[in-house]
Structure formats: C-alpha cells, structure tokens
Amino acid sequence: MQKPRWKTVGGTLLRVAAVWAVSTLTMLALAGILPDFRLKSGDGDTATQIAITAASGAGAFGVLSALVWPLLVRALLLMPALVLGLLVFVLNGSMLLIALSVNPDGRGAAEPETAVVVAAVMSAASSATSTFLTVRDDGAYRRRLARLAVRRRRRLGEDGGSDEPPGTVFLQLDGVGHAVLREALRERENRPPVMPTVAGWLHGTHKVTPWRTDWSSQTGASQLGILHGSNEDVPAFRWYEKKTGEVMVSNRPTSAAVLQRRAAARARHDGLLTVDGASRGNLFTGGADQLALVLSVAARRGKHNRSRSGYFAYFADPANATRTAVSFLAEVVREICQSTRAKLRRETPRVKRGGLYPFIRAFATVVERDVVVTAVMGDILSGRTAIYADLVAYDEVAHHSGPRSRDARQVLARLDCSIALIAKVAEHAPRDYRIVLLSDHGQSPGETFAGAYGLRLEDLVRAGCGLPVSRRAGRTPSGAEAREAGRAALRRPEKPGADGDGWCRGREVPAAVVSADSADDTAVSDPIVLASGNLGLISFPDVPGRMSRERIDARHPALLRTLADHPGVGFVLVRSEAHGAVVLGADGAEHRLDTGEVFGTSPLTVFGPGAESAVRRTAHFRNTPDIMVNSSYDPARGTVHAFEEQIGSHGGLGGEQGHPFLLWPAELTPPVAAGEELVGAERVHQVLRRWLEEADGPQVPEKEAAAAPVEVATAEAQAAPEAEVPAGPRPTKASDAARTVQDSRWDGAPAAPFTVASRVVPNKTR
Is residue 735 over pLDDT 80? Predict the structure, then answer.
C-alpha cells in the first residue's frame, strides 16, 4: 500500500523524535551514575538547564553519527577487522566529546575513557529504539531485504540481469470471494479502496474473473484440485470413511497426506509445482521440493521434513522475531477490543470469540502471514520458477466477525500491504515475475443453525432417528416438531402428561426404530454427524457401504422427512436403489439427478445454475456419506446457516461461498473463452498449468503425465467394495445431466480409475 507522502514524512519525524528522547534520557541517567560525566556547570544548574544540555548533546551526537559515521567507516574499510572494531569505540567516544563541546555554555564534560562508555550505551539505546519503531514498517523491512538480495548477488558474482523466462507467483487469499474483492477495490465515500495496490493492478496490468467451486466449497477440496489436478472423492472438509472407520479432516496432517497421495495417483503427476516450485503455507505440496508450513508433510519426522523449518528459518533472524512479536501482541489486543465492541453494540449475528481465539487469530493473521510472506520473498530473490502461497488471515477473521465486517476489511488492507511488499521485492529479483492472485472459495454470511433454531444438526438427526437429544434442544420448537414427526412416522401416540421432553430421557433406542434389517444386531450404533460449514454429513457406521434411501426409511422412517422439511435445511441428498442419486426437499419435493425427473419444485433451483451438476458429481463419489444435508439459502440476503459456530461460512452451496476469484496479468491468455464460465478447482489447475507452460514450457514432466495407468496395489484399493449398481432400468440422460448412470460412480466403486503412474523422477534442470 502506497502511503501518502505526508504520512511517510510524519512517521519519520516521529521516529527521530522518539530516538532523540530516548538518547536524552539515557544521557541523563548516565550523568547521574558515572562520576566523570557531568551535564552541569560547577556553580550548579536548574533541572531545566540540565535537561536542555542533555537534549542538545544527544541531538548533536545523533547528527554526527548520521553524517560523519558512514564516511569514517567507508574510509576505514581497508583496515584489519580487529583494528576497526577497536577504533569503533574510540571514534564513538570522540564524536560524543565533540557533541558536548559544541554546547555554547560549556556545561557538558566527560573524561575520554568515560566518553567511550557513554557513547556505546547511547548508541545501543538509540539503535534498539529505532529497530523497535521500524519492525512494523514494511518500507524499512523491504529495503532491508533488498539490501540483502544485492549482497547475495554480489557474493555469487551475479550482475542482477537475467535471460531466464519470467517466474510466476500464485498468492491465494483464502476465503476472499469475488464480490468481496470487488468491493475492496472500489472507492467508498471519497475514501481510497481498501486494497489500493490490487486496485491499481486491476486498472492497469491485471484482469479479474470469478470462478465457481465444486459443491464442497472449502480449502481442502479447492486447493487439492488446484495444486494436484484432482479433488475426486473429497465430499467435504471432514467426512467419515466406513472402509477405515476413521474421520478424514482436510487440515489434519495425516489426512492431508492421504488426500495428496490419492490426488497424485489419479492425476498421474506430482502437481503444479513439480519443476523448480515452492509451496508456502498450503495444505498440500503441489509437488514442490521447497516447502514451508505445508500440512501434508507436517506429520513427518526427521531430516526429510522441511515444512516446519520455515518457522526456524524465519525466527532465526532477531529482526524478524521482534517484528512479528510486536505485531502478534498488537493483534491480540485488537481482537479483544473488537470483540468487546461487538458485545457492547449487541451486534448480530455474533459468536463467542473468547478463550484462546485471540491468540489463534493472531497466529493466523500475523505469525503465519509473516513467515509465508518472507518465504515467498526469499523464493523470489532466489529466482524460483513457480511459487504458490496461501494467506489465511481473512478467512480466519471472517468466520468469526463476518465476511463484510470492519474487522475483515482491516485484514484485507493488511493483506494488500503484504502483496505490495512482495511486488516491491520482485523488482530486485534476478528474473521478472508475474503475480497471480486467486482465492479457493468465498464466504456466505448468516446466523448459525444452532443460533437460528435452538438445536444443532446432530440434535435434529437424533430426534429424527428417535434417539435421545439434549433437554435444551428438545424444548425448542424445531426439536418439538422433529419429535412429533418421528412419533407420527413410528405411529407412537403422545404420552399423557408428557412434559414435551420425553425423548430426551435415557439412552435406549426405541424398539420400533430397529427394523428387520438390523433386528439381528446386538446394538444399533448412533449416527455420526459431521459439519463442514453449511454442509452436514451423516453416516451409519454399523452399515457397510453406502446406505440406501430404502434402508434408511426402513430403519428410521422419520429421519429423511424430518431433515428435508426443516426450515433450516435446503435439501438432502441420498442414494436410492431404484433411482440413483436423489435430492429431497420440503413438502415432498424430489429431484432424481440421474434421470432428470422432478416432483414438485426442485430443491436445487434456489441455489442457482450449476448446483445440479455439482451435487450430481459429489453424489457418485466413493466417499459420499449416507446422507448429505445442505442448509437453506436466502437468495435475497445471501445468507446460509452454518452447522458450525461461524457467522461467515463455506463448505456447501448457497451464496458467495461458491464464487471465488482469479486475477491474472493481462499478458497471459484468458482463463476461458469469452462467455464461458470457469467451473471447478480441477479446471483452475489446468489454467494455471497452461500459464506456466506459456512462460517456460511444461511444468509437469510429460513422461510422467502421459504414463500408462497402473492399478493401485495397495491394501486400501484391494479392500474397496464392489460397485453397487442401482436396481431397475438404466435412467435416461437428464436435460442438463453431465453423464448417465453407465459412466457414473456408485458407492463402492472408485470415483475415477484409482491408478498410479510408474514413478518418474522429473528433470528439474533448465
């Protein structure tokens, strides 16, 4: 961000005044401690006269240090280092004696040996003050990095020029939707844009377009598709895999490693950054060798884990540590003040922001940002070909403060400063760089599901299954309606004198709920309910394979209608043995995705174009849970209801969460043809890969990408269940269906040929 000149000059003057004041106080303190150093005449002076003497002496010493010291050092550079080191103290002491002698009243005096001590202490104090005041000054930080880059090139014998093709920096602004970005680039009420650097690019060198995510609008699915070219079988941020009995979580290191291996196997290459690439702050490596804060390798131990070394490399520099520590504490205080203000103003919707959250926010918005930005600048100064970095600050704050809150806008402004800093450093790089900005998803605002209806999705599911729920949830209108629906489906009359919370007592499953399918089981396990933003996932762990609609109705007759008819639920996805993928809505609405049949109004209509194809694709993933629930969506206000404690959410369909952006230099070819929409993270991968090829040839080794598929011989693949083909005749192609059942992927069948290529070591030489 380019600051106005008056702000730059004013900040410099304030720093000079602060350093002068500290030097003056240091001189006064030393005058009181050292017997051979005085600031008053023999007849005695008032406190004011002594203070004036100290201020004039400190000022003169500072001016001499700024003007004379650089010339002296340059003149003495040819002297041996030891001699020069000793002369530093003598020269400093000499300058202090000169500074005291220019006092017209002759009040200051010091012995030569004492002057050396005083000068050394004053230099240390002023240097520490100056460093403290500039640790958060991006201009000073940028100039320091530029000096280091010049020294590095001189040491390597480089002249600063290069015939290499341009490199590419991909900066992912996590969670920033296209609409939010556009608002941040516009002037508001005669005020400059929130992101002036990016606004300047858009008016000159860059272009921007929205793109549409898959149903799972979250970082795990989007970044996996962008970096590795495949996000198949990733239905949500977290889901339950029946085959292993484990919950997969995208930001868990072990899960991220598995997802990366699967994606590389399907795409038959290591990723976007395979050749001379760097991955910074991401969930996945993208095939890069240079890693910092990459989650998929964070669980590794030993010398091969270079991801966590990003922290050590950054904080090994004391200037970095000081800069980040000051900013971290400032961010903690800022969050406490902002959350307190929100409480006092009784802003709604609002979620709890106490406990450890201020520190979590400070880590995401300061520590991780500083480490990632510094790593990117190091990559640029090293001339690396492809760099992909994720800046998560906005996403973290928007979850708890709202996508368009004042807090979130402030984070966008600081991200703009980081972008400007990276762009300035690129000017000193050994090669030209093109900077591409993009996001992995947006965020949709709205009150949480629990806040709006008084119960969690898990409570609603348990009520629909006839299982006990909490008393608090049972007393809410939604809980009471769910109980009544369940009783009606099970033909259980209301008990006389019931207090309205009868189903919340005990832990037994009502006998009527257990169907013939499970009558032989000693116990029916409770459903596993997971949330991914406004997307809910329900699995029955005791039933192998994907449970069909017919079996769900047989075991829990009230469950599907309880979910579909709830006002906070937009639609429910299940698999029918007779009709394939089916979407259920309120009032008996039904959309059979594989045949195109619609009964009533399709529940997907309100979610806009592309919703049907996105849901159909996910419906045939191998890891799709038994039931998927998407919250309701209000198109007039753009709001959804997160099943987590978030007032800005993403993960499902509805609103701006599914519309991130892609901003690229105009010199590159457009992402898609005019009038065409960019859809899906896998398509974005193809676009980014094409841009790398335009600059420097294929960035994924051709032999590896074209290698013949080899069936996976892992225990996981061997344990995969056989494909379940739906009963009944094959459905015909829907009006806007992307494919028929013949090439769909049913439960148990791989979503795509789960293959791996024979390992080819890429040639990373230029």
Answer: no
Neighbours of 136 (CB within 10 A): 14
Is-contact 754 262, C-beta < 8 A?
A: yes
**DSSP label at residue 364:** I
Q: Give the three-state DSSP class for 617.
A: helix
Contact 438, 684 (CB under 8 A): yes
CA–CA separation, 270 and 267 (whole Å): 8
Distance separating alpha carbons of residues 464 and 487, to the nearest angstrom: 9
Preceding omega of 349 cis (within 30 degrees of 0): yes
Q: What is the residue-wise DSSP string for 115-179? A: HHHHHHHHHHHHHHHHHHHHTT-HHHHHHHHHHHHHHHHHHHT--S---SPPEEEEEEETT--HH
**Residue 363 DSSP class:** I
Amino acid at 188: R
Q: Are 484 and 498 in contact (CB under 8 A)?
A: no
Long-range Cβ contacts of 288-292 (<8 Å, 24+ apart): 288/386, 288/388, 289/764, 290/379, 290/384, 292/371, 292/372, 292/375
Task: State how far the Cα of 19 lies from the Cα of 403, in Å rounded to an integer.
Answer: 40
Report DSSP letters for 12-48, one per residue: HHHHHHHHHHHHHHHHHHHHHH-TTEESS-TT---HH
In the chain, the N- to C-terminal Cα span, in Å, equals 35
Rounded Cα distance, 468 and 485, in Å: 15
Nearest of 655, 653, 461, 450 to residue 570 by alpha carbon: 653
At 490-514, the pLDDT tens digits run 444 444 333 333 333 333 333 333 3
Residues 454, 253: Cα–Cα separation, whole Å: 34
**Which pLDDT value is given to residue 658?**
96
| Residues 499, 493 contacting (CB under 8 angstroms) | no
Give the number of other Cβ atoms within 10 Å of residue 506's Cβ. 9
CB 538 within 8 A of CB 564: no
Question: Tokens in use for 231?
Answer: 């996000």
Helix 393-401, helix 406-426: angle, nearest 10: 170
Residue carrying the six token digits 């760089």: 433
Most confident of 162-166, 600-604, 715-719: 600-604
Bridge partner list, 436: 170
Q: Which of 64-68, 245-249, 682-686 has the lowest average pLDDT?
A: 64-68
- Rounded Cα gap, residues 206 and 198, in angstroms: 9
Q: How many CA atoms lie within 13 A of 757 on its CB side?
A: 19
Phi-psi region of 178 (alpha: psi -120 to 50; beta: other; left: phi over 0): alpha
| Chain centre distance of CA 718 | 35
Of 562, 508, 513, which is closest to residue 538 (Cα–Cα)? 562
Contact 131, 322 (CB under 8 A): yes
Q: Which tokens go with 258?
A: 């598995």
Residue 48 CB neighbour total at 10 angstroms: 8
Do residues 110 and 97 make contact, with C-beta atoms less than 8 angstroms apart? Answer: yes
Give exposure, 454-492, as e/b (b: 16+ Cβ within 10 Å).
bbbbbbbbbbbbbbbbbeebbbbebbbbbbebbbebeeb
Percent of the chain with pLDDT over 70: 68
Q: DSSP E strands: which ranges in 632-750?
A: 633-634, 639-640, 648-649, 661-665, 710-711
3 state DSSP class of 430? coil
> Per-residue pLDDT averaged across 238-253, rounded?
93
Mean pLDDT of 250-276: 93
